[in-house]
Amino acid sequence: MRLRRLLPASGASAAAAREVPGRMRSEVPRERLRFSSNLTMPPERRRRMKLDRRTGATPKRKPGTRPDWKAGAGPGRPPQKPAPSSQRKPPARPSAAAAAIAVAAAEEERRLRQRNRLTLEEDKPAVERCLEELVFGDVENDEDALLRRLRGPRVQGHEDSGDSEVENEAKGNFPPQKKPVWVDEDDEDEEMVDMMNNRFRKDMMKNASESKLSKDNLKKRLKEEFQHAMGGVPAWAETTKRKTSSDDESEEDEDDLLQRTGNFISTSTSLPRGILKMKNCQHANAERPTVARISSVQFHPGAQIVMVAGLDNAVSLFQVDGKTNPKIQSIYLERFPIFKACFSANGEEVLATSNHSKVLYVYDMLAGKLIPVHQVRGLKEKIVRSFEVSPDGSFLLINGIAGYLHLLAMKTKELIGSMKINGRVAASTFSSDSKKVYASSGDGEVYVWDVNSRKCLNRFVDEGSLYGLSIATSRNGQYVACGSNCGVVNIYNQDSCLQETNPKPIKAIMNLVTGVTSLTFNPTTEILAIASEKMKEAVRLVHLPSCTVFSNFPVVKRRIFLMFIPWIFLQEVDTLPWGMKKARP
């Protein structure tokens, strides 16, 4: 059996591999080995062996190499000692030929790597290859350039900081913000916003051609409207300003508060006290002003309609829009100066009485008919002036003379029964549930009657009152307000008025100096309006439940004075009408 020795493909390559130092051997590519049947000795070693035989010296071997049996070394002989380190020859430096071989090997390795990459890319679909070119670019010839681009340039700081080198290196490794690789075509399509069918956007149109705007143009328009309303860009909306100091923790907390959204402050549903926000609207009867005194003003219980009646024998209805308030209709009553006019509870009828007549006029708004009620069977009153309508629309209460209160059915206008108090009836009103009647007498006493049985439930003296003029109850059934001739308004709790013979008022309002002739609660029981007809500008608004007066009402204007009229709040909106009279020059 013949032994075959593994040799490199060429002798020159093997010689170059022996001469290349250890640090460069790893860079030389490993070439394919083949079996060779030529066992001849290389020429260099053959010359060295001949020289040793002539001189009789033993050839020297490098440490770690296999012993040469032909040189006389065998297993039975003692191993030869290696030469001392001082006698060892230093390794030879790489020559120009070795460097050329290393370059050639590196080029061969790059060529093999490129061939392998092309082989792998043949199996990829075309879409994947296109995406890689978009993301990574054309890196066919230089992969190191791709690595440098992905790593990104390091941003050198201009200011010295106390951070460590590791932290600075970590900060510099963040890649810069890149542009998007592709843009979706659907994002470029501008969506149009309709400006005509929205009442808020309609006011922002500059001309008829702007019936539709893109979202970007609408955003610019909203920004312009905001800056126009604010008088410029507010300080909190400026994004260019940045705080230079971060030592103050309070400033940092404030910045954090302004940069987040949320319900930090909840809105209150109740009316605040102190200052009342008001808006001056167009006169209700601007299309039909009158020179006579206005005696009654009331809003319709279910529509934006206001009724104005006065001593000019006319009842006028106006549509309330706050701008023009167009007139709807005027009903003229011949030789009938109106003392009081009022809507029914359902708003289908208008009732009116006069100063010197016992006739009660009823105007049917649906049929458009005026129905006079000349005589009520069982009613012996010569003059019918003051009356009240129950909140549920079932009863009509007429204040008679000699202390009588007459209860009538609202539908048939027939007398149900009468109630008698001591003294003269100054004012009366129903409770919120229409089951009780409160009557204020001329001697300062208040009577509480049951409507069904027509019996007196309680009787008490209004504290500090010598002569009662007005009385009112709140819609929620909590308060009773009594006005006297001395300008004092006592606010009571309804429960105490029903149970105690000498109830104490919650608060006494003393902002008027003349007799309080009118009292009215608003529908939400947050405002109590008090007024006197005996003095100009004698009207006040009281906040409930604090029982404090709004300081900014009434608003006094030059050459304009407020005059009292019996009024009532709008049912759904807190709108308050009052009369005005121009002063003489």
UniProtKB/TrEMBL annotation:
Kindly list the biological process annotations in GO that this record carries: ribosomal small subunit biogenesis; rRNA processing
Gene3D superfamilies recorded for this chain?
Answer: YVTN repeat-like/Quinoprotein amine dehydrogenase (2.130.10.10)
Keyword Phosphoprotein applies: yes
- The superkingdom of the source organism is Eukaryota
Q: Where is this region: Disordered?
A: 1-109, 154-181, 233-259
What SUPFAM superfamilies does this protein map onto?
WD40 repeat-like (SSF50978)
In which residue ranges is the amino acid composition biased (Acidic residues)? 247-256
Basic and acidic residues composition bias: residue spans: 20-34
Q: Which InterPro entries match?
A: Utp18, WD40/YVTN_repeat-like_dom_sf, WD40_repeat_CS, WD40_repeat_dom_sf, WD40_rpt
Give residue spans, biased composition: Low complexity.
1-18, 83-105
Q: Which UniProt keywords apply?
A: Nucleus, Phosphoprotein, Repeat, rRNA processing, WD repeat
What are the record's GO terms for cellular component? Answer: nuclear membrane; nucleoplasm; Pwp2p-containing subcomplex of 90S preribosome; small-subunit processome
Q: Where in the cell is it found?
A: Nucleus, Nucleolus
Where is it predominantly found?
nucleus
Per-repeat ranges for WD: 425-459
Name the protein family: Belongs to the WD repeat UTP18 family.
- Role, per record: Part of the small subunit (SSU) processome, first precursor of the small eukaryotic ribosomal subunit. During the assembly of the SSU processome in the nucleolus, many ribosome biogenesis factors, an RNA chaperone and ribosomal proteins associate with the nascent pre-rRNA and work in concert to generate RNA folding, modifications, rearrangements and cleavage as well as targeted degradation of pre-ribosomal RNA by the RNA exosome. Involved in nucleolar processing of pre-18S ribosomal RNA.
Provide the assembly information. Part of the small subunit (SSU) processome, composed of more than 70 proteins and the RNA chaperone small nucleolar RNA (snoRNA) U3.
PANTHER family documented for this protein: U3 SMALL NUCLEOLAR RNA-ASSOCIATED PROTEIN 18 HOMOLOG, WD-REPEAT PROTEIN-RELATED
The name on file for this protein is U3 small nucleolar RNA-associated protein 18 homolog
Encoding gene (name): UTP18
